[in-house]
Design goal:
alpha/beta; 17% helix; nine-stranded parallel β-sheet; 28 strands
């Protein structure tokens, strides 16, 4: 089915637009853009060079996709902002493309970005995440699947958030936050295992208790994180979730958030 494109939208003829899209008046689309099938682009949205947008996305009023990176190292290189399928991008969201040639900012599938969210250059986001009102993600961050950011969270540059984690409202952090936990406060700290999301995703009570024991060793013990990792390997029964925790801790370069 042909796309329904308003004659009052300004679209470069080089842009590639899929089938069955709805593009409202006053949308601005540059030439180096690819948009998949079944997308809805609401008025006053700007989709700029380097945008690679998948299928069935809804992009609401005032959003800017593939905005130029706010990075002093950017000197006009050609880069991309890649967005997967089935994302909801609400009003006034800004997503920057990457800084350097051949690099990408990546948003996965089935994510919900609420009003005023900003995703900076070269950040990589997984699937099924939620970003609350006014949340700001700095450059070069990595965010796993099924992560929830509440309202007005600020993630500083180069940090990582593990899958299945929830960040509480108003939190600012500059360290990595491991998987499957709730984190928040000033300074940010571990506030328990995210049992609600784990249960929703079919993780049983036994594994949830194992995760709680693992994080007791990490956050409540007197040893270093390296020693805690060894204790988790020795003392906590193996599961996919425990392996994910160990791998995240071993790969962290920024260090993890504050112990209690």
């Amino acid at each position: 089915m042909a796309s329904d494109i308003s004659p009052r939208a300004e679209i470069d003829p080089r842009a590639q637009i899929g089938d069955n899209c709805k593009i409202f008046p006053f949308v601005y689309i540059e030439g180096d853009v690819v948009i998949g099938d079944n997308c809805i682009i609401f008025p006053f949205t700007s989709i700029l060079n380097g945008s690679r947008i998948g299928k069935s996305n809804k992009i609401h009023q005032g959003s800017v996709i593939a905005a130029l990176p706010q990075d002093f190292e950017f000197h006009g290189e050609k880069s991309e902002c890649v967005i997967g399928d089935n994302n909801i991008i609400r009003e006034n969201v800004v997503i920057n493309r990457a800084t350097h040639t051949g690099c990408q900012t990546v948003i996965g599938n089935n994510n919900f970005l609420m009003e005023g969210v900003h995703i900076s250059h070269d950040t990589k986001i997984g699937d099924n995440c939620v970003f609350g009102y006014g949340t700001k993600i700095a450059g070069d961050c990595v965010i796993g699947d099924k992560v929830i950011f509440s309202t007005s969270v600020i993630e500083n540059a180069g940090t990582k958030v593990g899958r299945g984690t929830m960040i509480q409202a108003g939190t600012t952090f500059s360290k990595d936050i491991p998987p499957y936990i709730i984190a928040g406060g000033t300074p940010v700290k571990y506030n328990g295992v995210n049992t609600v999301v784990l249960s929703q995703n079919g993780v049983g009570e036994k594994v949830q208790k194992h995760l709680a024991n693992a994080y007791r060793l990490v956050f409540h013990g007197q040893n270093s994180v390296v020693d805690a990792i060894n204790q988790v390997k020795e003392q906590v029964p193996d599961s996919e979730e425990i392996r994910n925790v160990v791998a995240f801790l071993e790969e962290s370069t920024r260090g993890i958030i504050t112990k209690l």
